[in-house]
Write a structure and sequence with these properties.
Structural class of chain B: mainly alpha
Low-confidence stretches of chain B: 168-173
Oligomer: heterodimer
Helix content of chain A: 10-25%
Number of domains of chain B: 1
CATH superfamily of the domain at 8-51 and 233-317 and 426-447 and 494-524 in chain A: FAD/NAD(P)-binding domain
Strand content of chain A: 15-25%
Number of helices of chain B: 6
Radius of gyration of chain A: 23 Å
Largest sheet of chain A: 6 strands, antiparallel
Structural class of chain A: alpha+beta
Mean pLDDT of chain A: 95
Largest interface: A-B, 30 and 32 residues
Distance between the termini of chain A: 27 Å
CATH topology of the domain at 8-51 and 233-317 and 426-447 and 494-524 in chain A: FAD/NAD(P)-binding domain
Low-confidence stretches of chain A: none
Helix content of chain B: 40-55%
CATH architecture of the domain at 8-51 and 233-317 and 426-447 and 494-524 in chain A: 3-Layer(bba) Sandwich
Number of strands of chain A: 22
């Protein structure tokens, strides 16, 4: 089939990642013609070989270099100029789905209706209920889980209230990935504390599915492209479907410089095909923007989208995060050898028992979830050993302490917890255009202002403390501990900045993620999220893209 | 600026960035960061410094931080050698393991006296530590982790094996 080229498509989609790719599929399936404009190049799975941690992760072969294409962070005082490497943004067809972990939990009622959970919203935070309910999203979650080929299992425990609720009789398209060897040990340890981890949902094939092979557990997951296509990305799922219709015109090397609009209606976009080249116009009556939260806000600012209430770029949120790593002196290392041991960047156990917090002494009510993994087998060596610590006050050890750390790691069982938690939405946490630095295409780069609220910092310490207590009772000794600092130069779980809501006075987008001030202009990445929620955001933004695209009216 | 030297692309071995005395200094520093013993490999057992020595020599540069690293190493090694001569009364390349350990401890704490004002001690330490770990645990094709000996002991891509300095089944090869 010859790739189509549309002079005036029904829809222009800016960005080819999770949101844009999903929209390309959903809209072409409905008969629309779409042109997808992607700044980066197309890469096949073979371009992620040979597996090389130094090249792909340490030397960041797939992300924009901070020397020519940084983001500027203003620090907690708003006066700094810190040049930040955007490790969470991959340029290329498929966007950051090329390098993600494909950790696919749902946001749940506690996220959609945060005010039903939070009885203690700090006075300076703006926490709002989303203009949709979990029940309204359920059909789109189900569609997204099947479209993106998610492995996992619903209702794993008799008392499964802590796992994401699902419709009776509903099941994911594939069983869970093979459990890690530490699973039984952790289930028993948490069981004694009344907590129930479960095998998490991942957009990674646990068996041959949709023409793609099962995971080989090579260990090159987050920050790496999947060289065998067992991990889902936009290219091997939704874009493949869209291109198969003959109604998708995918153009690489096309950098959209601004959205064109007048009289409150979108007219199309301007783009360049080479840095320094001249601008071209492509017209359409609908433009869908999905280039990751901060970049979408930046495009709104570059396009001078009318903003009567000064809301564009505001309420930027990064999830509260935290890490704790422990070692067990009496537990042999969990390594059954490369032929047996699952090696993925994040192990498959998830823990949601602290999604809400019922502990009046804590002063906290909305919490978050953990991804649990084995530092030795799940993390490639450079990334793991660079964070070697021998306790809360002894980070980044060297010399004899580093040797001791390595001896423990290769001989003793270990566990690491990665926390994803709610974050307070603050008006001053925002995206602006930098007035000094321009990217290679000649456009001002994004400048972020961000500080974590005290609630976030207490939440990370509380949640980490709870799981550390459970692990200590099982014989664990703390090695690495990273709470949530006040400063945040950037993080992959990024949302807000173009808040959706029913009230035009308090949001940028309407409930269908269309601009209040420029009709026909939509946003499909996580920028729409009114609050951060407390789970990995990809599945929810994909479900939202399906929801929005279902409602687009035929001209 | 001290540039790449050695046979390079036209010779039988890759070009190196450091002059022999600088390389000897770097070897001392890396061994302090990950010291070896009779039963566990250290940075020098696997020629860890070889990775950054080669990478800094590559032209054209294929990673954007390389020019800054070149400048940092040239200034940093000279400053550390000078600090060692003051602190231990000996050149860095000739210092004992204990003397180098004390030097690195001072650097990590940002407390070496007389260090050039424009050189951030903690940043220099962090760079040395990161490159030492990369030289130990990266794919051997990059020059460090000679013979895959560190992976073999650590147990990466295969079950971990004992290490015996000086050779043997699990030693460097």
């Amino acid at each position: 089939m010859t790739a189509p080229r549309f002079d005036r498509p029904d829809v222009i989609i800016v960005g080819s990642g999770a949101g844009g790719g999903t929209a390309a599929h959903a809209l072409t399936a409905r008969g629309f013609t779409v042109t997808v404009l992607e700044k980066g190049e197309a890469r096949g799975a073979e371009s992620f070989l040979p597996l090389d941690e130094l090249h792909f992760h340490a030397r960041k072969a797939l992300i924009p270099g901070a020397d020519v294409d940084p983001q500027i962070y203003a620090g907690v005082d708003g006066k700094q100029r810190i040049s930040v490497e955007r490790w969470w943004e991959a340029n290329g067809v498929g966007g950051s789905t090329l390098i993600w972990d494909a950790n696919f939990p749902r946001y749940t009622r506690e996220d959609f209706e945060v005010l039903s959970v939070m009885k203690d919203v700090p006075g300076d935070a703006s926490m709002v209920n989303w203009p949709w309910t979990y029940d309204e999203f359920q059909p789109y979650f189900e569609a997204a889980e099947h479209l993106w080929c998610v492995s996992g299992k619903t209702r794993q425990h008799e008392h499964h209230a802590r796992q994401e609720p699902t419709r009776d009789g509903y099941e994911l398209p594939m069983p869970p990935l093979r459990p890690h060897a530490h699973t039984q040990f952790l289930m028993e340890a948490f069981g004694k504390a009344g907590m129930m981890p479960y095998l998490g949902a991942r957009a990674i094939n646990s068996q041959t599915h949709a023409g793609r092979p099962a995971c080989s557990f090579c260990g090159y997951c987050q920050f790496f492209g999947c060289a065998v296509n067992s991990r889902a990305n936009a290219v091997n799922t939704v874009l493949a479907r869209a291109l198969g219709t003959g109604r998708c015109d995918l153009r690489t090397g096309h950098c959209v410089t601004r959205v064109v609009h007048d009289n409150g209606k979108v007219r199309g976009v301007m783009y360049r095909t080479e840095p320094g080249g001249r601008e071209h116009f492509l017209g359409a009556s609908r433009v869908f923007v999905s280039v990751q939260t901060i970049q979408s806000a930046r495009l709104f600012l570059l396009s001078q989208i009318p903003d009567p209430n000064k809301m564009i770029g505001r309420y930027l949120t990064y999830h509260t995060k935290g890490t704790a790593e422990l070692t067990f002196k009496n537990q042999p290392v969990w390594d059954q050898g490369p032929a047996f041991q699952p090696r993925t960047a994040i192990g498959s156990l998830q823990l949601r028992d602290l999604y809400t917090i019922d502990d009046p002494a804590s002063g906290l009510t909305k919490g978050g979830k953990f991804s649990i993994y084995d530092p030795y087998t799940c993390t490639p060596p450079l990334r793991q050993i660079k964070t070697a610590s021998m306790g809360k006050t002894r980070p980044n050890v060297w010399g004899k302490e580093l040797v001791e750390y390595l001896r423990e790691l290769r001989a003793q069982g270990g566990v690491s917890f990665s926390f994803t938690g709610e974050a307070m939405s603050l008006y001053d946490n925002r995206v602006e255009l930098d007035d000094v630095v321009k990217d290679p295409w000649g456009l001002p780069v994004a400048k972020t202002y961000y500080r974590h609220h005290e609630y976030d910092r207490r939440l990370a310490d509380y949640a980490l403390g709870r799981v550390i207590d459970v692990m200590a009772a099982a014989g664990g000794e703390l090695r690495r501990y990273d709470g949530q600092p006040e400063a945040n130069p950037g993080y992959g779980h990024v949302h807000g900045s173009l808040r959706a809501g029913a009230d035009p006075g308090a949001s940028v987008l309407d409930a269908n993620c269309q601009s209040h001030t420029v009709r026909g202009l939509y946003v499909l990445d996580a920028a729409f999220m009114p609050t951060a929620g407390a789970s990995n955001p990809s599945l929810t933004l994909i479900a939202n893209a399906l929801r929005v695209c279902e409602r687009v009216e035929v001209s | 600026m001290i540039g790449a030297h050695g046979p390079g692309a036209h010779g039988s071995r890759p070009a190196r960035f450091f002059w022999p005395e600088q390389r000897a200094q770097l070897d001392r520093l890396f061994e302090a960061i990950l010291p070896g013993s009779a039963d566990s490999p250290g940075a020098n057992d696997v020629a860890a410094a070889e990775l950054i020595d080669r990478e800094l020599a590559i032209e054209p540069v294929d990673y954007y931080e390389v020019p800054a690293w070149r400048a940092l190493y040239v200034a940093g090694l000279a400053a550390l050698d000078a600090a060692c001569r003051v602190q231990a009364k000996v050149a860095l390349a000739d210092a004992t393991a204990e003397q180098v350990h004390e030097l690195v401890a001072g650097l990590a704490a940002g407390q070496l006296a007389g260090f050039p004002a424009g050189l951030d001690q903690k940043k220099l330490f962090a760079t040395l530590r990161a490159h030492c770990i990369e030289g130990c645990f990266s794919d051997p094709k990059h020059g460090g982790n000679r013979g895959g000996a560190m992976w073999r002991w650590y147990g990466y891509l295969e079950s971990s094996k004992p290490f015996h300095r000086g050779g043997g089944a699990g030693g460097p090869r």
